[in-house]
Amino acid sequence: MIDYAKLAGKEIQGLSPYVPGKPVKELERELGIEKAVKLASNENPLGPSPKVIQAVADFLPEMSRYPYGDVFYLRTKLASKLGINADRLIFGTGSNEIIELAMRTFLARDEHVMSPSPSFSVYGIIAQAMRASCRWIPVKSDFSFDFEALTANINEKTRLIFLGNPNNPTGTYFNQETLEAFMKKVPAETIVVMDEAYCEYVDAPDFPDTMKMQKDYPNMMIMRTFSKAYGLAALRVGYCIADPAAIDMMNRVRQPFNTNMAAQVAAEAALQDTDHLKKVIRENRMGKAYLYGEFEKLGFEYLPTQANFILVKTGSGEKVFTDLLKKGVIVRYLGSGLKDYIRVSVGTEEENKIFIEQLKAVL
Ligand SMILES: Cc1ncc(COP(=O)(O)O)c(C=O)c1O
């Protein structure tokens, strides 16, 4: 008999697959109900722009053709919107693929990546799948990143440092001054990947201008996505802004048609509908204010967020999560250092109200 576990090796055996938020339809089937509410995966509750839906519908008859391997039209539009040269961009099947591309291109087996913890677990999963590792550096008690500890742990084997800003699952951010001070201490051959999946939602005036900083720090990469504020999570499209030499190397590793054509067409249309994006951000801001107010009335501590989700201290996070699930509301329980918390994505006005109602009911 073939021993697949042995063939895969100890790193793969030691991996736990990423557990996504439960799909709404699955919960509805399990509970035999019609209207479950999912506030678990930081999706856009308003959905994509109607112009995106039209653009994808118009594209569908063309699906027998391969996509543009070089993502030409989307690349050109995005570059012009960002005010950069198109050779500074690479696209992927969500920013998840950008994480993987960066590691496959630059990370050797005996090297490691680093990230504050808690943060996005995928950094660790991909590093380990590559037979390398991730050094998780605990955040401080107020959930801010411990930049001194991050700096102290860098050595010549630290190839990539992932900094979620705003961070998931905390929603917290760090400012320009903090990032400048850190970058000055990072060796030139350690790549700092700024994971800005939620940047469109940010209100903070001192949020780092990373695109400007890249001029001084060619070892800084920026990762963004169309999955969140643009509402294209199912289509899978994310991108990376980096030094053209880094993009060139990642392009050699990239699968030829990694960004599917529906995603390219949708992202292009999404970029054009700035009114829809503004509406999404406005709704999120209102939803945040409502949830903050309700948490305060309930006496719950929460972390002020720069994103579209809130980490809230309900106590007994797992029980609250499970009880809410039985009521048809899906939130996220993160476990480990966050046992007293749940993470809730900001939904529509109606979804937020249902969540609060059911939260009160399970307490
Ligand atoms: C911090 C962070 N980075 C990256 C991603 C990946 O998003 P996607 O692959 O959909 O672009 C997520 C998704 O939840 C995230 O929270």
UniProtKB/TrEMBL annotation:
Reported EC number(s) for this entry are: 2.6.1.9
Q: Does the keyword Amino-acid biosynthesis apply?
A: yes
Q: What domain of life does the UniProt record list for this protein's source?
A: Bacteria
Q: Does the keyword Amino-acid biosynthesis apply?
A: yes
What's a BP term from Gene Ontology annotated to this protein? L-histidine biosynthetic process
Which positions does the record annotate as the modified residue N6-(pyridoxal phosphate)lysine? Answer: 228
Matching CDD domains: AAT_like
Keywords, A to Z?
A: Amino-acid biosynthesis, Aminotransferase, Histidine biosynthesis, Pyridoxal phosphate, Transferase
Cofactors: pyridoxal 5'-phosphate
Q: Which GO terms describe its molecular function?
A: histidinol-phosphate transaminase activity; pyridoxal phosphate binding
InterPro entries linked: Aminotrans_II_pyridoxalP_BS, Aminotransferase_I/II_large, HisP_aminotrans, HistidinolP_aminotransfase, PyrdxlP-dep_Trfase, PyrdxlP-dep_Trfase_major, PyrdxlP-dep_Trfase_small
Q: Which reaction does it catalyse?
A: L-histidinol phosphate + 2-oxoglutarate = 3-(imidazol-4-yl)-2-oxopropyl phosphate + L-glutamate
- Pathway noted in the entry: Amino-acid biosynthesis; L-histidine biosynthesis; L-histidine from 5-phospho-alpha-D-ribose 1-diphosphate: step 7/9
Matching entries from PANTHER family are given as:
HISTIDINOL-PHOSPHATE AMINOTRANSFERASE, HISTIDINOL-PHOSPHATE AMINOTRANSFERASE 2
Q: How does the record describe its quaternary structure?
A: Homodimer.
| Protein name, per record | Histidinol-phosphate aminotransferase
What organism is recorded for this protein?
Geovibrio thiophilus
